[in-house]
Amino acid sequence: MRFLTDRKRVEGLGSAKQGTGHFWEQRLSAIALLFLVPLFVLPFAYNLGDGYEEVRAAYAHPVNAVIAIAFFVTVSLHFFQGVQVVIEDYVHGRLGMILIIAMRLLSTLFALIGAYAVIRISLGA
């Protein structure tokens, strides 16, 4: 790090120039999840064990549907960011790149399936 200027050290911009942005994205997604988890769990737990019609009526309300979709997207983003850091730290070479791509696809698939399920239930299809 002795070749970095004082400004680069303060900004935290290393060789990839993405560390600070990744750090803040992960912290912001964690803060968003502090609010989204209770807002998602409350209607989910309230309707646990009810029939399809009761659950559909609960998620037909736009607020519940939007919160559920935001929850799935934010959880998948936060999951990927955390797993990416672990893979970058402990797995090197081509296998690390393959695992990062696989985790990105898996987290995107999770977000899409969750959003699709909520939209499908809320619209009553």
Question: Can you characterise this structure?
Answer:
The protein is mainly α and about 120 residues long. It has one domain (about 20-125): Fumarate reductase/succinate dehydrogenase, transmembrane subunit (3 helical TM bundles of succinate and fumarate reductases). The chain is built from five helices and no strands. The protein has helices at about 5-10, 20-45, 50-60, 60-90, 95-125. The mean pLDDT is about 85.
What's the structural blueprint in terms of helices and strands?
Blueprint: H1 6-11, H2 19-46, H3 52-60, H4 62-90, H5 94-123
Membrane topology: Multi-pass membrane protein
Transmembrane segments: 28-46, 58-83, 95-119
Subunit structure: Part of an enzyme complex containing four subunits: a flavoprotein, an iron-sulfur protein, plus two membrane-anchoring proteins, SdhC and SdhD.
The number of domains is 1
- Work out the helix count: 5
Radius of gyration: 19 Å
Structural class: mainly alpha
Share of residues in strands: under 5%
Q: What is the CATH topology classification name?
A: 3 helical TM bundles of succinate and fumarate reductases
Instruction: Report the CATH architecture.
Output: Up-down Bundle
Q: Ends: how far apart?
A: 57 Å
Strand tally is 0
Q: Percent range for helical residues?
A: over 70%
CATH secondary-structure class: Mainly Alpha
Element-level helix/strand string:
HHHHH
For CATH, the homologous superfamily is named as Fumarate reductase/succinate dehydrogenase, transmembrane subunit
Q: Low-confidence segments, ≥5 residues, pLDDT <50?
A: none
Mean pLDDT: 87
Membrane topology: Multi-pass membrane protein
Pfam families: Sdh_cyt
Pathway: Carbohydrate metabolism; tricarboxylic acid cycle
Subcellular location: Membrane
